[in-house]
Amino acid sequence: MAKPESTDPPLIELRNVTKTYGGGVLSRDSTVALDDVSLTVRGDTPQIVSVVGESGSGKTTLASLLMGFIAPTSGTILYEGQDVSSLSGPRMREFRRDVQAVFQDPFSVFNPFYKVDHVLTVPIRKFRLARSRSDRHDLMVNALETVGLRPDETLGRYPHQLSGGQRQRVTVARALMLRPKLIVADEPVSMVDASLRATILESLRTVNQTLNVPILYITHDLGTAYHVSDHILVMYRGTIVEAGDVETVITAPKHPYTQLLINSIPWPDPDRRWGQEIATRSEQVTVPEGHGGCRFAERCPAVMAKCVENPPPPYLPAADHAAACFLYDDRPELPKEELSRMLTLVPSGSSAQQGEGVPR
User: Fold this and answer.
1) Where is the ABC transporter domain (predicted)?
2) Burial level of 169, CB count in 10 A (0-12/13-18/19+)?
3) If you write DSSP's letter for every residue of 42-83 in order, what string do you get?
């Protein structure tokens, strides 16, 4: 008999969230960093989902909203069914413990006047994770060993005495101690040497697999996204333009923006020309400034007249694969209310996992 799906509310849910900087939504001086995005993150899935896109696509804004660092201009962010803006006291403490961050700059997390132990002992005291000094020490040792660090070579040192990779793994260990239900890793390897990236990403994958903690991996690096994630969301100027299983999206991208991103990666094949697989249309279209259509129209090699008239809805060019592009208007359209379900980080093996259009 199949195990029934959990009726508990999702860990985190974004409902039609928009974030605008520099003025109101209708201000000419405003910048829309995130535009009407819905996303559901359940706390009972071990998946890694990558959010990719170039600078200014809204990736970090999405991460900041998920962690409650900033408030949305419109829309709602829910934590276990409760509006994050209404949280206080013990509930806010629970939220801060359940949703942990690993930031881009590993050095900025540390106070240079304190030993690295300080980064670990503060959350232990704040969240009352240990009853004694011995318990506290054991907790730190176990967390450091889980991310591949030797406690005797890490504890008691100052931040400048550790490498960038070691500092970053300490921040992963800090998040790990709190037994979070979600880790948001915002460009965690962009400021470390290439030789250390694999080690840090392997630490995140170990946490993901051994503790069944879902990870939202924010990155501009399609290569690392492909190797570590299960699913991928591609963002452009505040909107999600493509989503699905990472193998499907990377090997058979549908949206022209995703195709351009992937074709910008050098291939070890002298006979392969960059951009040879990008969709094109012979239709000549003038894209007026300030049009209300697709945000990628100005750069799109496949732009059509209707692209500048209205923004495209998400379509399903294949199962487990959504793309917001009129090139697929002959395929099933994904209803607005179903887009959030398409982007749900569903538990592995759940019945929802088997439905068409839901990532594995």
Assistant:
1) 12-262
2) buried
3) -SS---EEEEE-STTSSHHHHHHHHTTSS--SEEEEEETTEE
Instruction: Look up the pTM and report it.
Output: 0.84
Which is more confidently placed, 84 or 4?
84
Which token pair is 341? 């379900």
Angle at 162 between CA 158 and CA 166, to 5 degrees: 125
- Around Cβ 11, how many Cβ atoms within 10 Å? 24
**Mean pLDDT over all residues of the chain?**
83
How many residues appear in the chain?
360
User: Is 317 in a helix, a strand, or coil?
Assistant: strand
Write the DSSP string, 210-274.
Answer: HH---EEEEES-HHHHHHH-SEEEEEETTEEEEEEEHHHHHHS--SHHHHHHHHTS--S-TTPPT
Q: What is the DSSP letter of 333?
A: B
* pLDDT at residue 325 tops 90: yes
Phi, psi of 327 (to 5 degrees): -60, -20
Predicted confidence at residue 204, as pLDDT, reads 84
Q: Tell me the pLDDT band of 341, cut-offs 50, 70 and 90.
A: low
Least confident of 219-223, 277-281, 308-312: 277-281
Nearest 5 degrees, angle CA 297-CA 303-CA 304?
120
Tokens of 242: 């493509």
> What average pLDDT score do residues 45-66 get?
90
- Give the tokens for residue 305: 């007249």
Q: Read off the amino acid at residue 18.
A: T
Number of Cβ within a 10 Å radius of residue 95: 19
Q: Are 49 and 233 in contact (CB under 8 A)?
A: yes
Residue 360 predicted with pLDDT over 50 = no
The SS3 call for residue 204 is helix
C-beta atoms surrounding 6 within 10 Å: 12
